[in-house]
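Input chain follows. Return structure tokens only.
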Amino acid sequence: MKRTLIIAMLIVGAASLLATRGLTADAPRAENMPKSKEFRIERSMPKEAIACIECHKNAHPGIFSDWAQSRHASANITCYDCHKAEASDPDVSISHYKQYERSDQKYGTKEYKVPISAVVTPKDCSRCHPDEAKQYKASKHANTLELIWKIDPWLNKGMNSEVERTSGCYHCHGTILKQKDGVIDPATWPNVGVGRINFDGSRGSCTSCHTRHRFSVMEARKPEACGQCHLGPDHPQIEIYMESKHGDIYTAYGNDYNWNAAPGTWTPGVDYRAPTCAACHISGAGNVLTTHDVTERLSWEIQAPLTVRPQDFKPFPAKTNWKTEREKMKDICNQCHGKTWVDDHYIKLDKVVEQYNDVYFKPAKKMLDDLYAKNLLDKSRFFDERLEVDYYELWHHEGRRARMGTAMMAPDYAWWHGFYELKKRYNNFMEDSRNLIEHNQKAYRAIDYPNATGSTVKPKVLFPK
């Protein structure tokens, strides 16, 4: 009996060894074998949401895959929760109703018919994110389309075409969405501009920073999210950031940052070594709370022609006190820097602002006004005379780069791309202006200025009176 038991044990052991060897031998091949993955539909989803998922999973696998990997999917937030609308809403997609008249698929019946809108707005997002939507509504981002219509000569003087505006300016600043017979006007869509005017009256698009359909916090925390709009000769924040020590550290260590920390918990020194745009302007740290109002924490309007305090910026006066907001930003800085370092940085920034204002901008503005007063420049249009372009770029390009480069600690932008270029622009502008005055000669006007066909009528939705 005992002998029989021993023999049986040996047989089982040998079989196990052979099986193990077989698995080991097949391991490289097994790793490369395709694995079937199925998305599990939870019972808590309504049948309408299941219909959305099953249909779009096949029609738009990229959209489905993005959503399936999102926090929304983990929380059973579906297409239906974000895109649902009331039948009477002006943005209901009439064409989508046709999807419920199909006989070639299980979910193409009236049983699953619901009104939906292709456009998801901050008002929609506010159902789950009320604080973020409220903060965003108060920001310059949400109001930037109104802002540029107040101050921008390209729009107000009609110096570019509607196509140029739609493909360029409005891509970041936002369009005014229009719809006819259930179809969105292609002249206004697609668009995810931060100041987009939506059908429901809300302003902006959360997907400017949290792109569809993953809506990732990680993505919005990275500087590249801001760099899609904040780049180029007039507001090169992404280039300035990458030149700075903050950008250097991000480049070296960014792969080690904990980008997926829960909202409100992203902590300097713990989750990241050096800040990104979001870390300074949006995320919370120390005693400073997270905000989606990028107008906060600013103590200067360094993008404006004449640098002023945010509450004194007439096109969009901030409802904040600059001293309070500066202390907030200093608190952010103090998470990684000593008090003297931070205080001295702001002393330098204030001096740069003072010199830009007094030495460069104010004399140039006075000279421009003198030329108009003497009828040596034509005031009816803008950019059709070279001195108008020089004046514009003096503050809008070189002047911004000098100020922004200083604020974000990028010396090459503060000097070579900033004050160095500013000096050349200023000297040429003043020299040519004085020659016109000395000889009482009108400036050459480009009578064949190209594509100056844009409407100069301010949109009623932004300016109802």
